[in-house]
Amino acid sequence: LEKATFGGQATFSPKIENYPGIAAISGNDLADKLIEQVLALGAEVELEEVVGLHTEGDEKIVISEYNKYRAKSVIIAAGAKHRRLGLPGEDNLVGEGISYCATCDGAFYAGQTVGIVGGGNSALQEAILLSEICKKVYIIQNLDYLTGECRLAELLKTKPNVEIILGTVVKSLLGNTSLNGVILKREADGSEFRLSLDGLFVAIGLAPENDVFRECARLDKTGYIISGESCVTDTPGIFAAGDCRTKTVRQITTACADGTVAAIAACNYIDRM
Predict the structure, then answer these.
(1) How many domains does the chain have?
(2) Is residue 2 part of a domain?
(3) At 246, which CATH number?
């Protein structure tokens, strides 16, 4: 069951270079290969949002917006969503100047001036992509340094249309029906200045969407399912895999590893019933 796009966050990556056996591939292409393999192995896939999960005896009941599914075991692999700035007017400007995916929306800003909020790998990869089509790209990072890979940062420094603004946060968004700029605040001295933009891409990490699983899985204070490398949860027969659970590293390969562990654990659980 998937509520949005098969492949999850991977589909937002224009270029993946850390998947074993593949030198480089787009997130969309990798997702296509994964779903092709899943279908070839006989799995059924449905585009439905899960709205509830509970148990009835040994059975697990998964409730979607359209159906109710009964299962002996359930693996939660809900991933995480893009974290928002949390500023007034942000919701109204989504699609009108604010985006969370350069791969999806970058083409709309060809030849224009854009900003990217964030300094990690995702932000830097999106900046590289946008630098090829946009007139000017500003990277806005709250820290005094970029947290992404050095090779990405060094590549961006060679691009004449990319400017990196460090130690600065977005204080407010400008524009009523469409974005026309932002007010930035320097962390060091609190001074503020305006930056005119046609678009703003937000790449400040992910947040889990696990509220519907609270009845069957304990969550930490940030909303991640509390589960170790065994992928078990507080409810026997329910497992958590990938970015939705507590873990130190969140990458495609670690999610794949979790999938293996959770699948074997689920099979073993059913065999013991």
Answers:
(1) 2
(2) no
(3) 3.50.50.60
Catalytic residue among 101, 216, 231, 244: 101
Q: Which residue has the higher pLDDT, 83 or 137?
A: 137
Rounded-to-integer distance, Cα 24 and Cα 109, Å = 25
- 75 with 110, same domain: the answer is no
101 is catalytic: yes
Pairwise CA distance, residues 152 & 154, whole Å: 5
Q: Which of 185, 196, 164 is nearest to 87 (CA)?
A: 185
Same domain, 231 and 156: no
Do 195 and 90 lie in one domain? The reply is: yes
Q: Is 105 a catalytic residue?
A: yes
Domain hosting 103: range is 84-202
Q: Which of 29, 32, 104, 256 is catalytic?
A: 104
pLDDT per residue as tens digits for the range 11-51: 877 778 889 999 989 889 999 999 999 999 999 999 999 99
pLDDT of residue 251: 85
- Residue 130 parent element (H or E): helix 121-131
